[in-house]
Predict the structure.
Amino acid sequence: MKKFLVFLFLSLISLGLFFWITEWVGWENIKEIIFAFSGWKGLVILGITLLAWLSGVWGYKFIFKSQKYNYSIVGLGEILFASSAISYLFPTSFFGGEAFKIYAVKKRFSLPLEKNLAAVAIEKLLSASIILLFLVSGAISFLLLATPSLRSFGAVAIAVIGSLTFGLAFFYFKTYKKESILKWLFRFLGMDEKRNGYTIQDFEKEVFRFFDFKKNLVWKGLGIFFFKYFLIFIRCWLLLFFLKGETNVLIALAILFFIHLAYCFPFPARLGSLEVAQAFAFSSLGMGAASGITFSFLLRSAEILVALLGLVFLIKLSIKFFLQSKFNHLVS
């Protein structure tokens, strides 16, 4: 009940932001730009969005393969599309779709818990490392392009990027030294080191083994996730080109920076936060707030269509797991 109330509260805030920003800019200006956006262009954006999600599945398959588990790309794809849909549409749930992902992988493939958790941690660390690269590039691009009066926003950008950089630097330093991070964290929080029958050494051993920079494993993983986020950048650049005829890479990087900032807010489908962020970004860069909101509409439309595919897989897997548990209960 508490989670539902939080979800409802955030949904109301996101809807309020959405209608406030669209009323402020004007529906007529927005509709005029949307109608000018032809069908094939939308299909290109949808195709790149789908390809980026599939790249995430490829990345997970690579991580599991590094643990000596060569799972089916179709089986993993169903689980990851379903979990991504949960994270996107219902971001107030526990770690988004990560809880479902861990449960579904364990249920379908009987993967040991420490390896399951290690795969999630490795994916998050690889993603964060590549996102940081685009955040730094985007923040620098915005500061170079924005007017002097808006450069004070750089302090916010530095704070966001600085905290992520510090966290990643701390992890990579501990990894290089082969020192346990979880032991230190558990001692700091006064928690027991053992959970659910597995030790933190088993979990961290998997993570440290992957992030050994003397081997090719981590570099291949970073390459796969760079490809995923480079596709997201290409989608941003193409959508910007379709809307404004703009080919400046620095502008596309600055716009992508604001997309990542909007995604920090746990609003369903990023409703409201994406519109506000893009209205501010486009207006600051001299391209008009209406174009920024239209940009967010078209971007979200592609993401929601792919998320709906994930919901289909979520329903399918939920029914399958429910029937399996009922059958196992009857047999036992």
DSSP finds 13 helices and two strands in the chain. The two ends are 32 Å apart (CA to CA).
